[in-house]
Amino acid sequence: MDIKSYKKSFEYSYTFGIFPTIELIKSKSEKIVKVLISSKYKTDSDTDIFELCKKYNIRTEVNDKIINRISDKENNFVVGVFSKYECELNADESHVVLVNPSNMGNMGTIIRTLTGFGLSNLSIISPGVDIFDPKVIRGSMGSLFRINFKYYDNFNMYDSSFKNHKKYTFMLDGAISLKEVKHDKNELFSLIFGNEAKGLDSSYSSVGKSVLIRHTNRIDSLNLPIAAGIALYHFFD
């Protein structure tokens, strides 16, 4: 494999940093091609990357040249190289749905947040950012490897696949306040968010229940990961 700076067209991607790489090893070890390690790497935690790779029978390679060539910042001492893979969403679990997400860091943060609140399924309505971009993985702190995800060409394709999920669309002109939303703990739900620039268009007001997260008029809207975090906290059992 000729390892180069990441491109979406590649069949493989990277984890930059020890923590995302550890998450990759523990969750998707079968997808790992190898782990690159800097000559400057020093164990500063309870987990030694060499020992962990040995435990999972993963090839390691000390190679500063390659790490420096593909890294987008300095001080990346550990890089995981792994093959991309596909997932299916679990129909018996609740979901987060991102419609046309455009910011890699935001997607990563949302993945980390939904994982923290016990969800494991993310639907992405195309077009949307590349979930395997190392910036997404870094933003998720490796939580990407703990979830199921799937891209859909349009929302109707997702909606028709999960008719048993109660849909909540988060909109600036939502019909009810989030505080008013009551949900059964056994209820399957989909929390649906628009992209950072436009949010959800008016057609989504007729999808399930449209929800407003109230805030003061000192701002025009909440940052997408913040809004998603508030919603996830409200629905957290």
Task: Give the key terms.
237 residues; alpha/beta; 7-stranded parallel beta sheet; 4-stranded mixed beta sheet; 7 helices; 11 strands
Report on the structure:
There is one protein chain. This protein has 237 residues and is an alpha/beta fold. It is built from 7 helices and 11 strands. It has helices at residues 18-28, 49-55, 64-70, 104-116, 134-140, 155-161, 224-235; strands at 12-16, 32-37, 60-62, 78-83, 95-99, 121-125, 148-152, 166-170, 176-177, 189-193, 209-212. A 7-stranded parallel β-sheet has the order 7-6-5-10-8-11-9. The protein has a 4-stranded mixed β-sheet with strand order 1-4-2-3, sandwiched between helices. The longest helix has 13 residues, at 104-116. The radius of gyration is 19 Å and the shape is elongated.
Write the layout of secondary structure elements.
Blueprint (H helix, E strand, L loop, with lengths): L11 E5 L1 H11 L3 E6 L11 H7 L4 E3 L1 H7 L7 E6 L11 E5 L4 H13 L4 E5 L8 H7 L7 E5 L2 H7 L4 E5 L5 E2 L11 E5 L15 E4 L11 H12 L2
Parallel strand pairs: 2-3, 5-6, 5-10, 6-7, 8-10, 8-11, 9-11
Antiparallel strand pairs: 1-4, 2-4
Report mean pLDDT, rounded to a whole number.
94
Q: In terms of per-residue confidence, which ranges show pLDDT below 50 for 5 or more consecutive residues?
A: none
Q: How much strand content do the residues show?
A: 15-25%
Percent in helix: 25-40%
DSSP strand count: 11
Per the principal axes of the C-alpha atoms, what is the gross shape?
Answer: elongated
Radius of gyration: 19 Å
Output the strand order for the largest sheet: 7-6-5-10-8-11-9
Distance between termini?
A: 45 Å
- The assigned structural class equals alpha/beta
DSSP helix count?
A: 7
Task: Give the helices and strands as they follow along the chain.
Answer: EHEHEHEEHEHEHEEEEH
Largest sheet: 7 strands, parallel
